[in-house]
């Protein structure tokens, strides 16, 4: 890098939501940090359309939906964002959709892209009818992300150009102190860039894990169907035959999507009865689905209401000050012993803040009196239990996180049918509670849960948690617990599940699911201590959860080659008691630069963002007014990129054949 007058070049591998968010922040910060007369060429490399990328591409089943309400999805900073760069508010998905029905603001800001109607009439029809509290299809989210991308382009100054290369980046080479060469599939000449950002998003694996390979080999030997972890929209579900018994391992969002595709996707439908319940009308092409998991119950339904009281002031008990106090000590931190009590107290604060403000008739004292006592007490102290019991008479209004975590612990049934009835009642009660604003304290807890989730990356990055706490706590129990409470499906999906259960299409297996194989019968087996002595034999097995990141087995050719060359590293957390290999790409906590073992530290010209990295809890889009960690990181990285590129740059590769200037 030597000529400060030549154009600067940035290559971004991946053009999905994360890259789009970064581009929006680059556009927002150019006015302050980029000279008007300087040229900056940005190359986006992705075989999928910029904006939605692979996961949110428009070409997927219209049956698949988001698990967030339209008003809870945004790609823009707002008044809650604590960033160095300028806040540039923009419409949430709900606000953007309202423009197609004439309900949005009259004149969009000048920097926004024109609101062009999607070409797909079904998507346009959904946008026009979409209410803020609806759960949109993924294809609607795809249209929103496409527009956000075009809005980011429109906000760039004329000196900044963006070129999309509709292909795959296969490798990146170049010295740490020189230009980087990004090699593209099907192109003889690489792109040359000053800096490279890796933003590939969620990735699958090219080589299955050992357990999955063994199960696939069993399936081949016996001509059975086996599906390893896969993204639902990409999964080939043509294998299971009508009426075939299929075990699904996993009870989260992937299970919901796969079930939709195997039922409605095969021609089934639902009829609403006079009492509001649903009846499933089978097409006759459905398999019989047996589902179980560690907890044995589906993820909690998303709430279908808004806060009834004021928004809780978060963080309160688990924010920078509390984390700083934890880090002030000198001993290793155990998640369960040292950190979880503060996390739980924060979640409880959100719960009770909403209960006391929105439903004071169900409490015995004022919020100020409760809050003063609550602040002084530890979450697991007898005093806290006494305070809650005295202040909240109805146990149904109290927050019991341990009971929520494993609802089937210690519960057994003598026969499968008895368990079916029990779990249907459990699901029905959960849906009813999550749709009743009288229980809006659950939403207060949910918002606090999000706040906790956003605070944890700083603690993990400090290196003070024990290796076992990261492995079994953060990446194990906590990730599952958070998803179970906060990332569940819309309520209507669980009502559909009840209808499928009553129709005999879905059968519940129980908790602590164990999968085996029976060589003599050529079947997969499924057992659970929830129904002792009961074994299900099936001729098909589906892993109903998403692929876990595994850097050594990733499907991404660029990451795979860098890893094999020793130019990037898997995160390894080790102490005398345990070693944890997370499968995630190690980046520096401060600036997201790739850790290069050959350099002994961060690579000065390579940055990585998003899902494959160990910057945990940094999602590409977020709920409005939550000071989203992803937006904070995007802003910091965008500013650092502009400063570095503006200091002294060189480039010798302009757009090539097969690329599209945008």
Automatic annotation (TrEMBL):
One family name in Pfam for this protein: NAD_binding_9
Residue ranges of domain FAD-dependent urate hydroxylase HpyO/Asp monooxygenase CreE-like FAD/NAD(P)-binding in the record: 11-202
Source organism superkingdom: Bacteria
Xref: InterPro entries: HpyO/CreE_NAD-binding, L-asp_N-monooxygenase_NS-form
Protein name, UniProt field: Adenylate cyclase
Organism: Streptomyces daghestanicus
């Amino acid at each position: 890098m030597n000529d400060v007058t030549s154009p600067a070049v940035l290559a971004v591998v991946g053009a999905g939501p994360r890259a789009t968010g970064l581009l929006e922040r680059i556009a927002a910060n150019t006015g302050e940090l980029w000279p008007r007369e300087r040229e900056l060429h940005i190359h986006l490399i992705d075989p999928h359309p910029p904006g939605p990328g692979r996961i949110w591409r428009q070409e997927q089943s219209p049956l698949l939906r988001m698990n967030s309400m339209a008003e809870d999805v945004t790609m823009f900073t707002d008044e809650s964002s604590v960033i160095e760069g300028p806040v540039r508010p923009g419409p949430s998905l709900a606000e953007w959709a309202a423009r197609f029905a004439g309900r949005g603001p009259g004149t969009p800001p000048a920097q926004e892209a024109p609101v062009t109607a999607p070409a797909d009439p079904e998507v346009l029809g959904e946008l026009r009818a979409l209410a803020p509290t609806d759960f949109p299809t993924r294809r609607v989210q795809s249209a929103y992300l496409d527009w956000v991308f075009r809005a980011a382009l429109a906000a760039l100054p004329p000196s900044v150009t963006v070129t999309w290369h509709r292909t795959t980046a296969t490798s990146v080479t170049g010295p740490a102190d020189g230009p980087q060469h990004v090699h593209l599939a099907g192109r003889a000449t690489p792109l040359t860039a000053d800096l490279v950002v890796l933003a590939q998003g969620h990735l699958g694996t090219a080589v299955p894990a050992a357990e999955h390979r063994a199960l696939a080999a069993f399936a081949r030997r016996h001509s059975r169907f086996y599906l390893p972890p896969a993204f639902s929209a990409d999964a080939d579900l043509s294998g299971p035959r009508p009426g075939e018994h299929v075990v699904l391992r996993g009870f989260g969002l992937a299970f919901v999507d796969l079930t939709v595709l195997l039922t409605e996707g095969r021609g089934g439908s639902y009829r609403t009865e006079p009492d509001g319940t649903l009846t499933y009308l089978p097409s006759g092409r459905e398999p019989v689905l047996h589902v179980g998991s560690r907890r044995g119950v589906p993820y909690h339904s998303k709430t279908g209401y808004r806060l009834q009281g004021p928004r809780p002031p978060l963080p309160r008990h688990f924010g920078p000050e509390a984390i700083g106090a934890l880090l002030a000590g000198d001993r290793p931190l155990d998640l369960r012993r040292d950190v979880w009590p503060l996390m739980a107290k924060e979640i409880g604060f959100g719960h009770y803040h909403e209960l006391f403000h929105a439903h004071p008739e169900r409490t015995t004292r004022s919020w100020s009196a409760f809050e003063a006592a609550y602040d002084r007490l530890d979450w697991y102290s007898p005093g806290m239990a006494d305070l809650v019991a005295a202040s909240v008479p109805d146990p149904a209004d109290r927050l019991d996180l341990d009971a929520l975590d494993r609802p089937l612990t210690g519960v057994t049934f003598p026969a499968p049918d008895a368990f079916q009835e029990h779990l249907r009642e459990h699901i029905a009660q959960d849906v009813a509670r999550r749709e009743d604003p009288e229980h809006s304290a659950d939403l207060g807890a949910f918002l606090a849960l999000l706040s906790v989730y956003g605070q944890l990356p700083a603690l993990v990055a400090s290196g003070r948690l024990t290796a076992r706490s990261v492995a079994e706590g953060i990446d194990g129990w906590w990730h599952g617990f958070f998803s179970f409470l906060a990332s569940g499906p819309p309520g209507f999906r669980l009502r559909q599940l009840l209808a499928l259960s009553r129709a005999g299409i879905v059968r519940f297996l129980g908790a602590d699911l164990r999968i085996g194989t029976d060589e003599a019968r050529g079947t997969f087996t499924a057992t659970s201590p929830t129904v002792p002595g009961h074994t299900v034999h099936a001729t098909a097995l589906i892993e109903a959860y998403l692929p876990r990141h595994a850097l050594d087995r990733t499907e991404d050719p660029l990451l795979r080659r860098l890893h094999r060359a020793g130019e990037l590293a898997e995160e390894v957390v080790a102490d005398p008691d345990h070693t944890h290999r997370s499968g995630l790409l190690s980046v520096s906590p401060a600036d997201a630069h790739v850790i290069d073992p050959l350099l002994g530290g961060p690579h000065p010209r390579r940055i990585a963002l998003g899902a494959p990295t160990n910057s945990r809890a940094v999602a590409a889009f977020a709920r409005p007014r939550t000071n989203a960690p992803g937006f904070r990181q995007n802003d910091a990285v965008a500013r650092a990129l502009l400063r570095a590129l503006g200091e002294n740059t060189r480039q010798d590769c302009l757009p090539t054949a097969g690329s599209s200037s945008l």
